[in-house]
Design a protein that fits this description.
Layout (H helix, E strand, L loop, with lengths): L4 H8 L10 E4 L9 H5 L5 E2 L5 E2 L10 H10 L5 E4 L19
Antiparallel strand pairs: 1-4, 2-3
Bound molecules: iron/sulfur cluster (SF4).
Length: 102
Amino acid sequence: MPWPAAVVAAAAVGTGTAVSRRYLHVDPTLCVGHRLCAEMLPELITLDDFGYPIIPPDPLPRQLGSLVRRTVGACPALALTVDGTPGRRARRDEARPRTPSG
Ligand code: SF4
């Protein structure tokens, strides 16, 4: 799922560059479904049917850099990271039924 068009357009305003070369990732082995990330960064993170984050594999919009950093730092499970590795597009058959704990 690509970034919403409004986010990319907003990121382009005033910066001259819409996106960075940084990518947001979630480690599914650490994530316990607190949902905090989607509440802090609804512009980018949505939740699946089980309350686990869905993160688009696209480069991060520059304009949201500070919000992204705050969200990564707030994850209680330390499951979020930002690096230069392109995100991997999730396949529907990778969805795993789990029960969120919080
Ligand atoms: S805040 Fe962290 S543990 Fe909670 S849903 Fe988001 S990535 Fe998972």
